Amino acid sequence: MNKEKTKPRKNPRRAPAVTPPAAPGNRGAAPTPPRHPPAAARVPVPPPHGVAASGARAGMIAIVGRANVGKSTLLNRLLGEKVSIVSPVAQTTRRMVRGMLNDPRGQLVFLDTPGVHQASYDLGHVMNRTARAAVEGVDVVLLVLDGSTPPRDEDEGWMRRLLFHEAPIVALLNKCDQGTDQVVAYRQRWARVAEEKSAPKQADWLRASAATGEGLEELVNKLFALVPVGEQLFPDDVLSDYPRKLAMGDVVREKYFYELRDELPHTLAVEVETVEEKPEGWLVKGAILVEKSSQKPILLGAKGRLFKRVVAAAERDLAEMYGVPVKLELWIRVEKHWQKNFWVLKRLGYVP
Ligand SMILES: Nc1nc2c(ncn2[C@@H]2O[C@H](COP(=O)(O)OP(=O)(O)OP(=O)(O)O)[C@@H](O)[C@H]2O)c(=O)[nH]1
Ligand SMILES: [Mg+2]
Known about the structure:
- There is one protein chain.
- This protein is of the alpha/beta class and 352 residues long.
- The chain folds into two domains: 39-44 and 53-226, Rossmann fold (3-Layer(aba) Sandwich), CATH 3.40.50.300; 244-347, GMP Synthetase, Chain A, domain 3, CATH 3.30.300.
- It is built from nine helices and nine strands.
- The protein has helices at residues 71-79, 122-134, 153-162, 183-196, 216-226, 244-260, 296-300, 305-322, 342-347, and strands spanning 57-64, 97-103, 106-112, 140-146, 169-174, 203-207, 269-278, 281-290, 326-334.
- The strands form two sheets. The chain has a six-stranded mixed beta sheet, sandwiched between helices.
- The longest helix has 18 residues, at 305-322.
- The radius of gyration is 20 Å and the shape is globular.
- The site of magnesium ion has 5 residues, from helix 1.
- Residues 67-73, 86-88, 90-93, 114-115, 174-175, 177-178, 209-211 line the site of guanosine-5'-triphosphate (GTP).
């Protein structure tokens, strides 16, 4: 597995502190959401890595919840940069993605996790295990719920699990921009499950919109109040330590998720093999894996137009993420039953 560290460079042409994360696959069409208020979140912490300013706080926060509630959107919005891919299709995030938020108050280290879902393949089981393991040893668990829809069984599954967790729980009702706020239904569900289990555990309830930034300042304040006083865990200039090749492959996968929606997504993987850093830009080579040769034409589209659109959109995003021109050279490879094959999952970085 690739061990390179991701350190997305901030594009010198844009000011990350005032630019919201990209609206993937929908550039130019979506209204620009208002800027996320806690600009201080992007102000570097004065002391160097490992030295705690007096009273500075630092901690790890696992972002968990069922698929499609907006966990990755939330992480990107909190950091003001895209570190985790987002799509309207459930089960977009496949591996744990870590992102750091530095602030004069200290450092919050977020773990974005795959949404827990009914799994039918090895990949799905691995994703569920990754998400469940992420809550071990963290300082705070941030349970993200879709406040615009009533609670589902997968939400209750997380509640049952977290009722016996030692860390403080923040339950965030996301998507509050959608109008229909289901906070009462979620709180009643939590109370009912707690009573059934005779667990006195309480959660702090907040509402927010990862899409507009509403409520996120309060969330960050709450998280800083909950994490312990201590040294920062990562250097100031590290936004994410997610390996660069995996992050690049994810961006291509995200573009296909937007183009194909439910037609294909879960049988598709992208493996970036090499990144050549040339003076004129980066040349990135890799393969798109599918399970059957009949899926190739779907990925190519009529006259290869879909493929070209995906490559162009991914190149644009990558150039913005890393601040250098990026050229992608990808080919489509058939890899039978890769989702059930431990070694392929390992090569793709889905298992440690
Ligand atoms: N209206 C609205 N949409 C949101 C909000 N947050 C996320 N979304 C949308 O919800 C969809 C899922 O977002 P993701 O961030 O990929 O969700 P996730 O929880 O990371 O999903 P998985 O990785 O599949 O578990 C995307 O279409 C987002 O644009 C929000 O606050 N409001
Ligand atoms: Mg996600």
